[in-house]
Amino acid sequence: MARLLEEWEKDDDIEEGDLPEHKRSPPPIDFSKIDASKPEDLLKMSKKGRTLMVFATVSGNPTEKETEEITSLWQGSLFNANFDIQRFVVGSNRVIFMLRDGSYAWEVKDFLIAQERCEEVTVEGQVYPGKAAKKDSKGKEQNETKKKGDKKAANRANKSRQEL
């Protein structure tokens, strides 16, 4: 029995390609090809061959069915552009796109932020505003400036109260 166990342990050598992704060694990065002024290039190289999640938010107040339909169109367009991508709806206006090769995430991000109903896209913790966010942000900016003006007035009132 002991000899059999030793033979089986020798046969347990699993090839690199058959290992789960988290146990594989990362692909080597050629730093001579990377432009130091573009940090995205380094991220692209480091995510090559790794699974990566891209989060997208649909603008407005869509139902889950509307989100499903809109993001299905986005996924179809990306699939037609030869991106291996899966889509998971996780809320009434939120979706996750899963890429098998994370180096394409920034190209997918560029496509998504150009869509009419895309409010924002998140890649590796970095939030990128979409086309729909530009329309909404104008109203938000005006509201924020009004709030700042109100705060300044309140600060002036507090100062005069303290002086009394």
From TrEMBL:
Chief location: endoplasmic reticulum
Ribosomal protein is among the record's keywords: no
InterPro entries: MESD
Highest taxon of the lineage: Eukaryota
Key words of the record: Chaperone, Endoplasmic reticulum, Signal, Wnt signaling pathway
Annotated spans, Disordered: 1-34, 129-164
Compositional bias segments (type: Acidic residues): 8-18
Compartments, record wording: Endoplasmic reticulum
Comp. bias (Basic and acidic residues): 133-153
Family: Belongs to the MESD family.
Identification of the protein by name: LRP chaperone MESD
